[in-house]
């Protein structure tokens, strides 16, 4: 592979990587896309709060706890619990009580990666397939930390683009598989 760098924000990279990991762990593509978007959103909220950009909304916590029991459950991906529910069309991560639509996530990824989505997806799939599901589940976030775009620390890095190097992703794949 030639040296390929893509200038991109971390959020779509994390969204795609989470979706790839979810697929490797047994979710279908639509289920995985919703999981990826949810996890990236949860990470962005946590970072935004840590940086003082967002303030916690206690009323949302109360509403979430007051919602119907038994309909939502948690899926852990990349070491983080993601709220999800079963729908008529499969498992979907939820934002509040609303299922995250995979078609919207697919459009988001296509717009953020532009013409590079297929190449990045292929590299991430090779990386994910080079690990057994259990091993990948344990190492997925650490792998992401090794290939994610570098951005400035603190508020300066909020929304900033960095370089995603496909050679780094390819290099992280276990060679014996």
Strand order of the largest sheet: 2-3-4-5
Rg is 16 Å
**How do the SSEs run, as a string of H and E?**
EHHHEEEEHHHEH
Helix and strand content put the structural class at alpha+beta
User: First CA to last CA: what distance?
Assistant: 18 Å
* Poorly predicted regions: 58-70
Count the beta strands. 6
Principal-axis shape equals: globular
Helix content: 40-55%
Biggest sheet record? 4 strands, antiparallel
Mean pLDDT: 82
Percent strand: 15-25%
Tell me the number of helical segments per DSSP (H or I, 4 or more residues long): 7
Total domain units: 1
Oligomer: single chain
Sequence-ordered SSE layout with sheet pairings:
Elements: E1 5-9, H1 10-24, H2 29-50, H3 58-66, E2 72-77, E3 80-87, E4 90-95, E5 98-99, H4 102-113, H5 117-129, H6 133-147, E6 161-165, H7 166-172
Antiparallel strand pairs: 1-6, 2-3, 3-4, 4-5
Description:
- The longest helix is centred in the first third of the chain and has 22 residues, at 29-50.
- Helix 1 (10-24) packs across helix 5 (117-129).
- It is globular and about 45 Å long.
- It has helices at residues 10-24, 29-50, 58-66, 102-113, 117-129, 133-147, 166-172, and strands at 5-9, 72-77, 80-87, 90-95, 98-99, 161-165.
- It is an alpha+beta fold and 177 residues long.
- The protein has seven helices and six strands.
- The strands form two sheets. It has a four-stranded antiparallel β-sheet with strand order 2-3-4-5.
- It has one domain (5-172).
- Strand 3 (80-87) and strand 4 (90-95) form a beta hairpin.
Notable traits:
single chain; 177 residues; alpha+beta; four-stranded antiparallel sheet; 6 strands
């Amino acid at each position: 592979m030639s040296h390929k760098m893509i200038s991109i924000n971390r959020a779509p990279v994390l969204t795609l990587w989470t979706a790839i990991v979810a697929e490797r762990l047994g979710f279908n593509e639509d289920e995985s896309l919703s999981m990826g978007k949810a996890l990236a959103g949860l990470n962005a909220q946590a970072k935004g709060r840590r940086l003082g950009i967002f303030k916690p909304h206690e009323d949302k916590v109360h509403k979430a706890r007051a919602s119907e029991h038994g309909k939502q459950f948690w899926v852990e991906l990349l070491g983080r619990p993601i709220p999800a529910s079963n729908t008529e069309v499969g498992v979907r991560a939820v934002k509040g009580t609303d299922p995250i639509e995979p078609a919207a996530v697919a459009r988001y990824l296509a717009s953020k990666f532009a013409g590079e989505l297929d190449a990045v997806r292929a590299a991430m799939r090779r990386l994910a397939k080079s690990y057994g599901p259990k091993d990948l589940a344990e190492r997925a976030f650490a792998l992401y930390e090794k290939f994610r775009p570098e951005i400035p620390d603190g508020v300066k890095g909020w929304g900033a683009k960095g370089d995603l190097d496909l050679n780094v992703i390819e290099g992280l794949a276990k060679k014996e598989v």
